[in-house]
């Protein structure tokens, strides 16, 4: 059984997903954040395929990724900015220039906002 807060988040996520659809030319950039990491996927909803994905797990953020403190800082605003830059770099190399942003039910604030702004700054259009 889901908690009241989880049900509310799920309803928001579904409401957003109804309006946002990705195609091959303009995929959906979906963000998910957990307490430890942030994950991003570029999805073509018409084919039901994930085109590429990036996360703070794959970034080795911060540089001294072997320390216990580094694992704690893998889901903060600083990490989301570097994830946005890395995701944009990977998307542009794959030929993706425009996306539809799916914030996944999270409010456009903090980590989500920092991620989106760093993607825009690095050259991704949405």
Describe the protein.
The protein is of the alpha+beta class. It has one domain (about 5-120): 2-Layer Sandwich (Nucleotidyltransferase, domain 5). Helices cover about 45% and strands about 20% of the residues. It contains 5 helices and 4 strands, in the order αβββαααβα. The protein has helices at about 5-20, 55-60, 70, 75-95, 110-120, and strands at about 30-35, 40-45, 50-55, 100. Strands 3-2-1-4 form a 4-stranded mixed beta sheet. Helix 4 (about 75-95) runs parallel beside helix 5 (about 110-120). The longest helix has 17 residues, at about 75-95. The radius of gyration is 15 Å and the shape is globular. The protein starts with a helix and ends with a helix.
In spatial order, strands of the major sheet run: 3-2-1-4
Note the run of SSEs as H and E.
HEEEHHHEH
Structural class: alpha+beta
Q: What gross morphology would you assign? A: globular
Helix content: 40-55%
How much is the average pLDDT?
91
Q: Which structural traits does this protein have?
A:
Nucleotidyltransferase, domain 5; 18% strand; 4 strands; 4-stranded mixed beta sheet; 126 residues; alpha+beta
Helix and strand layout, with pairings?
Blueprint: H1 4-19, E1 28-33, E2 38-44, E3 49-55, H2 56-59, H3 68-72, H4 77-93, E4 100-102, H5 111-122
Parallel strand pairs: 1-4
Antiparallel strand pairs: 1-2, 2-3
Helix pairs in contact: 4-5
Q: Summed up, what is this model?
A:
This protein has 126 residues and is of the alpha+beta class.
């Amino acid at each position: 059984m889901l908690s009241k807060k989880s049900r509310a988040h799920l309803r928001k996520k579904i409401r957003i997903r109804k309006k946002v659809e990705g195609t091959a030319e303009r995929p959906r950039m979906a963000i998910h954040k957990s307490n430890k990491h942030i994950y991003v996927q570029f999805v073509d909803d018409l084919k039901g395929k994930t085109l590429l994905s990036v996360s703070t797990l794959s970034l080795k953020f911060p540089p001294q990724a072997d320390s216990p403190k580094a694992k704690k800082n893998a889901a903060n605003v600083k990490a989301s900015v570097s994830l946005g830059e890395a995701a944009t770099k990977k998307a542009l190399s794959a030929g993706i220039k425009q996306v539809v942003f799916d914030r996944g039910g999270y409010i456009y604030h903090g980590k989500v906002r920092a991620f989106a702004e760093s993607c825009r700054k690095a050259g991704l259009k949405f």
